[in-house]
Design brief:
single chain, alpha/beta, TIM Barrel, Oligo-1,6-glucosidase, domain 2, Immunoglobulin-like, six-stranded antiparallel β-sheet, 18 helices, 23 strands, binds 2-acetamido-2-deoxy-beta-D-glucopyranose, alpha-1,4-glucosidase activity
Amino acid sequence: MDVIKVLVILLSVSLVEILGHNHQPKDQDAKNNWWQHEVFYQIYPRSFQDSNGDGIGDLQGITSRLQYFKDTGITAVWLSPIYESPMVDFGYDISNYTNIQPEYGTLEDFDVLIAKANELGIKVILDFVPNHSSNQHPWFLKSVAREPGYEDFYVWQNGSLLENGTRVPPNNWLSVFSGSAWEWNDERQQFYLRQFTFGQPDLNYRNPAVIQAMDDVMLFWLNKGIAGFRIDAVIYIYEDALLRDEPLSGTTDDPNVESYLNHIYTRNQPEDYLLLQHWRQLLDNYTASQGGPRRIMMTEGYATVAQLMEYYEDANGVQGPEFPFNFDFITEVNENSTAADFVFYIERWLIYMPHGHVANWVMGNHDNPRVASRFGVKSVDAMNMLLMTLPGIAITYNGEELGMTDYRNISWEDTVDQPACEAGRDSYQTISRDPERTPMQWSDELNAGFSTSNHTWLPVNPNYKDLNLRNQQQARQSHYKVYQSLLKLRQLPVLKNGSFIPDVVNSRVFAFKRELKGEHTLLTLLNVKNRTEQVDLTDFIDQPNRLSVLVVGVDSHHRVGDRLKAESIELAPFEGLVIQLNKRK
Ligand SMILES: *[C@@H]1O[C@H](CO)[C@@H](O)[C@H](O)[C@H]1NC(C)=O
Ligand SMILES: *[C@@H]1O[C@H](CO)[C@@H](O)[C@H](O)[C@H]1NC(C)=O
Ligand SMILES: *[C@@H]1O[C@H](CO)[C@@H](O)[C@H](O)[C@H]1NC(C)=O
Ligand SMILES: *[C@@H]1O[C@H](CO)[C@@H](O)[C@H](O)[C@H]1NC(C)=O
Ligand SMILES: *[C@@H]1O[C@H](CO)[C@@H](O)[C@H](O)[C@H]1NC(C)=O
Ligand SMILES: *[C@@H]1O[C@H](CO)[C@@H](O)[C@H](O)[C@H]1NC(C)=O
Ligand SMILES: *[C@@H]1O[C@H](CO)[C@@H](O)[C@H](O)[C@H]1NC(C)=O
Ligand SMILES: *[C@@H]1O[C@H](CO)[C@@H](O)[C@H](O)[C@H]1NC(C)=O
Ligand SMILES: *[C@@H]1O[C@H](CO)[C@@H](O)[C@H](O)[C@H]1NC(C)=O
Ligand SMILES: CC(=O)N[C@H]1CO[C@H](CO)[C@@H](O)[C@@H]1O
């Protein structure tokens, strides 16, 4: 059956369940706007499910868990890289853009994954890593050998030779990891640009043949039936054509660290936006010619809010990706933030966002500590309530629906994250990204049900004995059940399309309303501090109104269905509530 039809049926069924009557979305809308209120669930394939007992997650493992997404209410997933790679940076260093990493399976496994996902109405987004290839990629090897057609696939420069015989790079650009961004190649007798490790040479996007090659890669995967791309590290794609030195930042005296320079010639160059606009055209053309749901593009880049907004569309209104990831819940707020800080950063995105676009909220990913470790384990449910009741798109990193925690206590011997290894035995622990990448905790069986191997690529967090999906499915209340009920709630028109009205109640508590004509208003209420609060919302809520509780966290004294009085609502430390306002007739 047609994916869209399945989606429509699923949607209508849930709406009937929630509302007691039928809101049939128009088929056309469902097609074009399917992504606008979607929950995108990030799968870290290496840690999700191992099917062959080698201790490493794989594609067949993901396929075997697709039903889990359907049961949870997730209809779109994005996969961190699965391409062939020497795995120096766990797949962010690609040696063949059109093949699957053998540890993860084969192209046939991928076809099966897509077919099964389609059957279940789940869309698949792939990670696309254009900033560089691996130095093992045949393109690079050919470029080193100056094979015709490949000479300029990468950014090659002579640099200069000092009188005493020392070679110096063409300019002062620095690698994100450490030291010069230029690596000398003996065979070709030139420097190549690499903004990450020496094994990750930057592709030269000023060469039309490179653009064509990457377009072909995109079409290869689109033809396999994916719904779009998540594009990695977009701010690094282009560098200044004149190779000008970057000015000193003045914030550090260490000439080897990235922050020594102000990166005005290597980040967020105007051409980055043009390339994304080109890819957007490619995707739109593809959708137009092939039919089916809109193929979309979401981009990763840590940048200022003004720079990010230009990815949505530029000053001339030319469209870029459907949305650039909003990392504010990771980069701007933390365990010490006040209620006003939260509201400020939510509003900032909404205010800066150009008209006609859709907001998005990233609560976690494979590069940052988990929610339970950033905000505290008590905040897990409240943060999911926040994520799921804001306007627009929600992005969940695998395991966050269970409230998984970082496993910081990974030994030096077991550490595999490249930057952590480079940092050395004494300081790896604070910067390592391994703690948030440990295997998914499915059950209390061996290796949390992730693998039957004696050795998993990263250790399983020992807390899996209690903290696992099966326990949470069986418990009367659990983080998972809260998450599931929030996903169901998202089918309500008021959450899809309602206005957003926030209120800072005091420095510890904030609230926001979602309102839509003809629908019950929803209210989300969050206590972000460690003390019990008694709040009075009479100024914020139109009277008279009856308040009934829709979603509560696992530790709450409130229950779903409870009636509350606007003049006095008690919130436990870090508690969140989702409340429905029922107008008195
Ligand atoms: C990349 O993988 C594809 C399989 O899709 C294979 O046909 C091709 O030969 C590989 N390319 C290189 C350069 O190894
Ligand atoms: C780079 O060096 C080579 C060999 O010394 C020389 O032939 C070439 O002209 C140089 N290229 C530039 C752009 O200076
Ligand atoms: C050559 O000169 C440069 C610049 O003065 C200096 O940094 C470098 O150490 C010298 N190299 C040798 C081998 O003397
Ligand atoms: C998209 O289609 C338009 C119209 O056919 C064409 O001019 C343009 O080159 C195409 N762009 C891409 C990137 O495929
Ligand atoms: C929060 O504040 C405490 C106490 O000042 C401090 O130790 C901690 O590092 C802060 N956390 C963050 C993420 O800034
Ligand atoms: C950390 O790991 C070491 C070695 O495996 C173990 O002895 C210790 O108990 C662990 N500590 C915590 C807090 O888990
Ligand atoms: C796992 O460990 C057990 C006990 O140490 C051993 O008998 C078994 O052969 C090991 N299995 C594998 C696949 O290495
Ligand atoms: C509500 O949905 C309609 C139809 O999809 C759309 O045109 C409108 O812009 C949406 N309103 C809001 C506030 O998002
Ligand atoms: C919150 O307060 C309680 C009681 O004072 C204390 O035990 C707990 O550690 C605190 N939690 C956080 C996350 O600060
Ligand atoms: C933003 C970013 O870091 N993007 C990727 C570019 O390449 C490096 C090195 O592989 C990766 O670590 C990044 O994830």
